[in-house]
Each structure stands twice: as C-alpha cells, then as structure tokens.
Amino acid sequence: MTTTLEPTMSTCRACLAGDLFLYLPLGDHPPANAFLKPEQLDIAERTFPLDTHVCLNCGLIQVPDVLPPDFFEDYLYIPSASDTMHRHFSALAERFRKDFIADSGQLVVDIGCNDGLLLKACQDAGLSTLGVDPSRNIAELARARGIEVFNEYFTAESAPRVRAQYGPAQVIVTTNTFNHIDNLHGFMQGVATLLADDGTFVIEVPQALTCVADNEFDTVYHEHLSVFSVTSVAALGKFFGLELVDLDELPIHGGSMRLFLRRSGPAKPVVEQWLQRERDAGLFARETYVRHAERVERIRTSLMKTLRDLKAQGKRLAGYGAPAKGSTLLNYYGIGPDLLDFLADRNALKQGRFAPGSHIPVVSPDEIAARKPDFLLILAWNFADEIMAQQEAFRAAGGKFIIPIPEPRVIG
Ligand code: ZN
Question: Residue 406 C-alpha to ligand 1 middle, in angstroms?
Fold first, then answer.
C-alpha cells in the first residue's frame, strides 16, 4: 500500500533556495532497510514515493519525502561488518588525536555513532568519547563496547542538554549520518551549541559530483535523504557561523568526502578548488541531471538484458550484499526472486529476512559455497574489491561477478 507523504519542504534543505528540480522520480519504494521477517511476507508493505531532486542553486541532491521516525528504532546497518570501515575509522581516530585534540580530556562526540566502531578506535587512541544515536538496539551494541551513548536524536533542542551533561566537544564527527538528516538547520544549530570555540566539526558523506558522474542513483533512498555537494555544505555552514576550512576525498562508498568546519578560517586552497570543480562540472545546470537520468535508464536496459539472457541460458544468479542502496536498485529496476535466488550478506541481522519490495531471501555468504550460483550481482558495489577478494574460492570455481554501477560489467 502506498502512503503519500507530505513533502516537508519546497525549498532546499541546505541553502533554502526554492530552485528544486525533480530529475529522477524513482516510483514508490518500501523503506530500504525494512527487511521482512518470514511472517511479514503476506502483509502488504508500506511504500512511499522516492523522488530525487537537485537544488540548482547549491547542488544538494535531495529527497523531500521523510519517513516516520519509528522506522529507525530497529536499525539494521552495522558498519563493523566491513573490513574496509574498520581500517577507515582507525585512521580517522588517529587523525583526531594528531590534528585536533590537544589533551586526552577533550571530548570527541560521534553523532549517529551506530555500534561504536569509530569511538572504540578513538578510545584505543586515548581519546574521551561520547556517542549520540537515537536507535535503541544500536545504542546497546555501542554500550556493550564500553561507549557512553546519549540515546536521542541530535537536534537544536537536545544539544544544550548534551553540553550541560558532558561539556563542549572539541571534535564533533558524523560519518554517513548527515545525509540521513531532514532538518539540517536544526542539526547545525545543535552543532553550533555543542562545539568548543576552537573545535572542529567533521562530516563524512557521499558526494554529489561522483554520484552524478558515476551514475550512483541508488545512493539515494528514504534514509539517505541528501547527497551533498561541497557548495551545499559551505552554504549551510555559513548560516551558523561555521566555515568550511578543509576537505579530503575518500574512496569509500563509491566516492565520499570528509569536510572540516570551524568557527574561523583560514580555508585551505583545496576548498576553493572543489567549489570551482563543481561549477566546471555543471553541477548547477539542469542539463547535467537530465543526462544523468538518461544514463540510469540505459543501465537498466543493459543490466536487465544481461540478467535475463543469463537466466535463459540456465545460469544460477544471486546477489552479493543486501545494502540499503540495493533496495533502491532492485526495486527501481524490477529485479526479484525470479532473477536472483538469494542475497548473501555478512550482517547477521539481515540473514533469514527478505529484501523489502523484491522479497529476495537474505542468507549468510556461506550459502554461496553450498548453493554454487554461476553469477553474483554485487549490490554493495562500493565494496566490490573487498567482496571479490573474500570470494576468491567462488571465482576459482568458475563463478563470475556482475557489477552494476557505474556501468554494468561482468568480471570473472
Ligand atoms: Zn540548495
């Protein structure tokens, strides 16, 4: 059953301009992380429109439709499942200790701390930590690691209580969470409240330039409400007296960036270089998004032909990974259990459940050796190299991989 959501805005979530362009209406989707238990399969799923817009003023890609908050109480994404993220967070903790924390009493606050992987790395580096996460089951996992957790949403209203209880934050960090936030201005007000005068706000998010250039349309789902341009973050910070002073490119999640904001500059040259790069790439031009949407349709045609031809040849197909982005891709392209026998995922919380919308069963990767599919469609394409390395035995036995993004290709 489709639930029509009242769009919460007619203006950009970051810069507040009214210049939103709907370039990729993806249709009605169930929430991307609403994996179904077997007894839920016969119940009609709730679906919601997923309409991808871009702000032609600041380049923020955004979905106006926001799910009710009860969808996030039983949250299934756990970054600890990935070796890549383990290494990534250890390096980030070391960076905090080296560049931003003068003494070990200064606080690092991770907003959207998930199961505490980053903060555990911070503790191992000798730093004081606090996690903020509204999800009850995830907060318990972090606490089990010895992480103190403030178990609420981070907002303009809750931030003063965090500061009163724990003091100012020398570093506020949010990894792959900022893109989940509907009320960015409320969140930033909270950051401005909690951050120490000489503190640093660090954001890691997928970035718009790669998303558009590499056809990563599935980066958008109802929980990933935004894909940020550098321009959009700079514009947002200005409302709250925070200046974008530095920026790292990150190879994770198919092209991400780490942004550093402080109450005063100077900004490193890389910031202006990126702002110029976004202008040069046409990130504020309607035509850029029209062409992107055309490429997304071409991928559908090519990928569906590949899968159907293989199926017609009697090949056994399965998916590797059951990430939220996979829900967008499977449901938009119409890939179901008629094409993929199962999805293999290391996240035990998803195993034994069924993918939302497509109803493809999710199993342990151990099933790959037992059921011997001929092809694995890598839905977690941002971890394709890691997955192919882990599945060396599958490849050695003649198995092949299909990577859908940025263009469908077969490897084996
Ligand atoms: Zn904007």
Answer: 25
